[in-house]
Amino acid sequence: MLAIEALQPGLVKQFAAIIAADRLGQAYVFNGLSGTGKGALAQWIALRLFCQNVQAGHPCGECAECQRILSHNHPDVVVLATEARSLKVDDVRELKAELSKSGVEGQTRVFVIEEAEKMTPGAANSLLKFYEEPVPGAVIILTTAAKNQLLPTILSRAQIINFPTPPRVQVQAQLEAAGVSARLAAITVQLTADLAAGQALAADEQFQERITRVLKLAGQLAQKDATAFIAVQASLMPVAKALPEQTQVLALLALVYEDALNQHFHVAGPAAFATEPVVAQLAASGATALSTSLSAILQAQVQLRQNVTFQSDVEQLVLKLLAV
Ligand SMILES: [Zn+2]
Q: Given CA atoms 97, 99, 103, 107 in this order, what sign does their dihedral have?
């Protein structure tokens, strides 16, 4: 089975039915976070259209046609992707040349532009002719994580397919399959459901350091150790200089308390830190203390967004948490 069939079974089923009924459209926009399988589904459609050995509506992935597509060597499957910041007119020229080839009547051809939001208005406009006069047999698929950045003229002429974000357990399994430790995968997946972003986060040593320091702070708080106040400046500030990092520190602290509250009530929850000893210590502090603490953390998160400085925000929070 191809990976996309496990990642987006609903969309694969939908397109299998559309192609079986010979109702594939001329233009699609695949919209969704990175890691949701947009490019892989576009490739699956190409495989399904060209495979010589389709079984129960699914391409085999092994025949000569499938192999050519999988190795990016199929002349009728053109994928445009760039590492650069933008896709310019010159970049789509080849694609346009292919599109304007008359070819055999109704010849099947698949064109994919990845990260289509990178297209300059000039590049997008140069494709508009195709949208206005579709070429029989040709399908053009734009993939994007930001469909609102595409030209309205492109969007209005395409069918927009929104890719659901996969459930966290699935992303967690994928992170582990990619070599991320089970512990780190369980934490990471609470902060992002995007596989690529999760992998980057898990590989970031600063992120791991933040986790260590947040857990240490939680330990001090669990023991009502007043040095927790000093730890804000001495321990947290150096690893949380910018707002995204500061937001992450508070999110991690919230996860610790959420896990403690869930453990107190013996219910399943995010379980990012469930096996950490500090969670058990906090869980013993009781439901009232835990829910008061969680609302204080929530308030600190709101205040951080309202431009309160991180240091004074977390210092106030620590005083509240020590007093609970
Ligand atoms: Zn095949």
A: positive
Ligand 1 mean position, distance from CA 5 (Å): 15
Read off the tokens for 289: 């203390």
**Candidates 3.30.450.20, 3.40.640.10, 3.40.50.300, 3.90.180.10; CATH matching 3-162:** 3.40.50.300
Q: Is 112 helix (H, G, I), strand (E, B) or coil?
A: strand
Distance 45 CA to ligand 1 centre (A): 12
Residue by residue, DSSP assigns 69-115 as HHTT--TTEEEE--SSS-B-HHHHHHHHHHHH---STT--EEEEETT
Kindly give the distance from the C-alpha atom of residue 147 to the centroid of ligand 1, in angstroms, as a whole number: 31
Distance 110 CA to ligand 1 centre (A): 16
50 alpha carbon – ligand 1 mean position (Å) = 7
79 CA to centre of ligand 1 in angstroms: 19
- In the reported structure, the alpha carbon of residue 49 is separated from the centroid of ligand 1 by a whole-number distance in angstroms of 9
What is the CATH code for 204-323?
1.20.272.10
- How is the chain split into domains, by residue range? 3-162, 204-323
Q: What are the residues whose beta carbon lies below 5 Å from ligand 1 (ion)?
A: 51, 53, 59-60, 63, 66
pLDDT in tens, the chain (324 residues): 788 888 889 999 999 999 999 999 999 999 998 778 999 999 999 999 999 999 999 999 999 999 999 999 999 999 998 877 788 888 888 788 877 776 666 789 999 999 998 898 889 988 888 888 888 889 999 999 888 889 898 999 999 999 987 778 888 999 999 999 999 999 999 888 778 889 999 999 999 999 999 999 999 999 999 999 999 999 999 999 998 899 999 999 999 999 999 999 888 776 889 889 999 999 999 999 999 999 999 999 988 887 789 999 999 999 999 999
Domains 3-162 and 204-323 fall in the same CATH topology: no
